[in-house]
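#help-structures
NK: newbie question, is this the right format to request a structure? protein is Mitochondrial Rho GTPase
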Amino acid sequence: MRKDVRILLVGEPKVGKTSLIMSLVSEEFPDEVPLRAEEITIPADVTPERVPTHIVDYSEAEQSDEQLYQEISKANVICIVYSVNNKKSIEKVTSHWIPLINDRTDKDSRVPLILVGNKSDLVEHSSMETILPIMNQYQDIETCVECSAKNLKNISELFYYAQKAVLHPTGPLYCPEEKELKPSCIKSLTRIFKVSDLDNDGILNDNELNFFQRTCFNTPLAPQALEDVKNVVRRNMTDGVKDNGLSLKGFLFLHTLFIQRGRHETTWTVLRRFGYDDDLELTQEYLFPMIKMPPDCTTELNHNAYLFLQSVFDKHDKDRDCALSPEEVKDLFKVFPYMPWGPDVNHTVGTNEQGWITYQGYLSQWTLTTYLDVQRSLEYFGYLGYSIIYEQESQAAAITVTRNKRIDLQKKQTQRSVFRCNVLGDRGSGKSGFLQAFLGKNLQGQRRIREDHKSFYAISTTYVYGQEKYLLVMPDFDFLSEADLACDVVCLVYDINNPSSFEYCAKVYKQYFIDSKTPCVVVAAKSDLHEVRQHYSLSPHEFCRKHKLHPPQPFTCSVTDAPNKDIYTRITTMAMYPEAHFLPKLSNTGDGDSFSTFLQYSPGLRFTLHMAQADLKNSTFWLRASVGATVFAVLGFAMYRALIKQR
């Protein structure tokens, strides 16, 4: 809503423009009237809408045409004053003043007009019969008020209507000729209805209506008041109330009724509460609230954000199969002005056998968007109405900004939940296969992906010491940018069947990561094929031994079932503990059974030990897990099992 209102009074000489202003201010008719009143500012605390109001007079005797044009361009609303006992002043409304104002204002942003019939105390008849055809002819005319500066009739009402025409304009909402809401208004109110329909059953029940009422007007409706509202709808249309709840048609009818009865402010209060501006567009302030992003920090969704997303998922998962069909996805995004997810999303996150996005995949995509483009995530949460449903100041309340990565390295622990793995390798080395395997797709399934549906990312969850973490896997492009080097862990992928493949990995490592604190792992892709000797001066094993890296990890997605995912747990563990260069040998203290049980339920640690033992004779193993991490693993896994069992 505007922060102030500027009202300009124009009209023929001697119609009483100045008298109207002076009568408003002094609350009595002035004995002497100057040619023109000085600009008057009415403070916000004495106006009904709590907005400062500036009232500007015009005098043909004192001002030039150029000064008039300047005032017209600055005005938010223009009152064209005529004398009810002077037909010539009425004729001038259409022959002079309206054309003049239209010529000086932009067609797309016309100023609302108020027709003011002054000196009603001098006649016994009304001028409305003459004025109504004019109002019907010009859509910019908001209303007409007959008043008297002498006996103070309708003076306050005049300026209230002028203020209201600016703050709660009819034009964007309603078409008087058709006597119905405009398409843009219907679109906005439909989104508001869908956001407020918390169970997505197509009606607003009493609880939803009360939440809507409290959200917009800070007060609930009494049970009888709710019934009265529904009875009004029932009397006027057959399908406005269904199952004792308000349908979309009934909701739109109520707002039409408000506007027809001059209660525009009711509809505008609703629209503004849900983020709309005077042009019925969601405001930039609503969609993109300020959020501070220090360097070396990342953005994640917090617990409340995930709860909200879960409720949105449940709201649209009609068949309760824990996946969103294409129709359900389309229904979910009906509150958006465009479809935000393309076909690539189905190859970015986990899907079911039908290729539909699963619940976990759905959360993963939101996690990905928040991590890569927090502004886009804020925009999406705005469309879904997060700040309204969760009664927050803005959707920025859904975001957690992680602490600086350097602090994590110093403290040797992290509070982050999302980790990024950059996959680097020569063309054809198997990077895309490595991404899709993380989503459970074997080589046969990957070959069915259309070229224009392929994704640059893959994100899913892994469990490290009983903690659920998100791992984002993304390949490099033609060059390495600063962002590419700022990842949490690097996978250097080479094709064991291509003798020229490993050289790229070796050069990239020596150029960018040899002195870096970013952990690296070498992946020997296509391990189902025959391994050939690499043309590089050192074999991959020798290179890893020399640079104190893990030996190359064999990997293939050419399998019958889903590819093995142990390596992704390993990668996430490396990302969480980049400073842990060695994993100490854990001795058996006598309780061998409990230790083996611990390994059985700690796949990340079990895989780490397996890798260590496999290469213990030939290389120095660098991953180190603290005793604290081990204890946390036991406690974390116990809590995880309890939660899973409860669910």
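mod (FA): yep, format's fine, and the tokens are attached above. Confidence is low (pLDDT under 50) at residues 581-647.
NK: thank you!
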